Amino acid sequence: MLGRVNHIAIAVPDLEAATAAYRDTLGAAVSQPQALPEHGVTVVFVELPNTKVELLQPLGETSPIAAFLEKNPSGGMHHICYEVDDILLARDRLVAAGARVLGDGQPKTGAHGKPVLFLHPKDFFGTLIELEQA
């Protein structure tokens, strides 16, 4: 069911500083910031040859990333995103196996314009999992 790793997301308290560190210190290609109000975040993608790193900053006080940064003020890994061929089929298989889908269970449009779902971290050994339709 799982395809390749699409991205690893890191919550950061200062998106501009994190972007500069990846671009200037590590020499990586980075995208322009993209606000995603539906998800409560602003994102920057670090482009790598085999995957991406998504830098996340809260967009508004109700952002789930704001809550994450309250617990982890320096930032840290927030989630890992795997590609799937059919997100509804993947969701149905996972729910039948006992996994919990966050939210209302319906895919939302992610940063890449594709359907995404999140799976409860308690079902996956403390790791928040995002699924993105390839």
From TrEMBL:
Its EC number is 5.1.99.1. It catalyses: (R)-methylmalonyl-CoA = (S)-methylmalonyl-CoA. Transmembrane segments: none annotated. Residues 4-134 form the VOC domain. It comes from the Bacteria. InterPro entries: Glyas_Bleomycin-R_OHBP_Dase, MeMalonyl-CoA_epimerase, MMCE/EMCE_epimerase, VOC_core. Keywords: Cobalt, Isomerase, Metal-binding. Pfam families: Glyoxalase_4 (PF13669). CDD domains: MMCE. GO terms for molecular function: metal ion binding; methylmalonyl-CoA epimerase activity. PROSITE patterns: VOC. GO terms for biological process: L-methylmalonyl-CoA metabolic process. It is an enzyme of class 5 (isomerase). Belongs to the methylmalonyl-CoA epimerase family. This is methylmalonyl-CoA epimerase. It comes from Rhizobium redzepovicii. The gene is mce.
